[in-house]
Specification:
Elements lengths: L7 E3 L5 E3 L3 E2 L14 H15 L3 E3 L7 H13 L9 E6 L6 H15 L4 E6 L16 H13 L3 E7 L3 H9 L7 E5 L7 H9 L3 E5 L22 H10 L3 H11 L3 E2 L6 H8 L8 H8 L35 H5 L7
Parallel strand pairs: 3-4, 4-5, 5-6, 6-7, 7-8, 8-9, 9-10
Antiparallel strand pairs: 1-2
Bound molecules: NADPH dihydro-nicotinamide-adenine-dinucleotide phosphate and 1,5-anhydro-D-fructose.
1,5-anhydro-D-fructose binds next to loops.
Length: 339
Amino acid sequence: MARVNIPTFKLNNGREIPALGYGTWLGVDEKFDFSTAGIPKMIEALSYAIDIGYRLVDTAHVYRVEPEVGQVINKKIKEGVVKREELFVTTKVWQHFHREADVEVSVRGSLRRLNLDYIDLVLMHWPMSISQDGVDEKIDYLETWRGFESVLSKGLVKSIGVSNFNVQQMDRLLKNCKVPPATNQIEINLNLGQKELVDFCQANKVLVTAYSPFGTMVPSRSAPNSPEPKLNNPTMLEIAKKHGKTVTQVTLRYLYQRGMVSIPKTVTNSRVLENASIFDFTLDESDVATLAKFDNGFRTVRPYFWQDYDNYPFDKVPEKLEIPEALRIWKNGINLDID
Ligand SMILES: NC(=O)C1=CN([C@@H]2O[C@H](COP(=O)(O)OP(=O)(O)OC[C@H]3O[C@@H](n4cnc5c(N)ncnc54)[C@H](OP(=O)(O)O)[C@@H]3O)[C@@H](O)[C@H]2O)C=CC1
Ligand SMILES: O=C1CO[C@H](CO)[C@@H](O)[C@@H]1O
């Protein structure tokens, strides 16, 4: 069987995190329901990923796949393929759990669904807080962060971090916390370079994790009018050819050379291998400069339907955009079991 050797980055608490991981947001199916059809494929592809050397898995309560992620992990530990301490499991606290005491409720739920004794990294999924029935709860993320510091001190999790925080929110959090976030997980891909936010995080020793490294690619997960992810771009094809690699490999290598973790999602075994086979070549300065020029600031994961909520982190869209059917479940369907 093929093997990949994935290097690690160091977090600001001294722990190591693999530079590349397996993303588990399956989105919705053709009926715009939560994708149950994708789950068996994910189970197979994640099993394969661990077999060939992936050690980081990125999931979230809201992806509704924590039980399956946990089943795969525990099976691989039982089979002796990997030890628990060699794995790095990230999950996220959804917006319904932003009161200080609710963070522990959410984390304990994730531990149970994942069937694990501890989680390596838990993230505040978004800075906004939203009630079960979709109302803006206006809870300050500094309050939520105290809940994160508490689950850390209780040993339920090894590291804590945030996701989708902008520069101002990072700055305010860093100035008002006891434990700084280990990472900020944000969208980064060829269309969206996020230079200012990346520079700010890196200057403050917060590791950046790049989500949707290919711009997510699926309409049911993307803001309307998303530009194509450059898979067939002639310049990209030329750089890929020069290195004997694919466009997706060049993209992931570029993120690695920018000092960030990336967590591509695929349920296709050949792509699982392809995406991690990026640690045996180097992009030169001119390649990097060419790739940086693709940045057009376009955000694919853009929940504009929450843009009037407190602490929405992104620029607002000027006009009222329609919410396509494909995004309905993202806005309305997040009716998580609080078990
Ligand atoms: N914190 C947050 O708010 C967010 C976090 N995330 C995390 O980041 C992960 C990745 O982002 P995601 O939005 O899923 O999208 P990605 O940018 O990773 O793109 C996923 C798509 O790319 C396809 N793909 C993967 N590898 C290749 C390849 N080598 N060649 C061609 N196509 C490929 C997949 O197809 P197929 O599966 O059919 O092979 C899938 O359609 C998520 O799964 C999740 O874990 C994502 C969004 C928001
Ligand atoms: O990680 C993500 C993917 O799924 C969610 C909702 O379905 C998004 O809000 C989120 O940012």
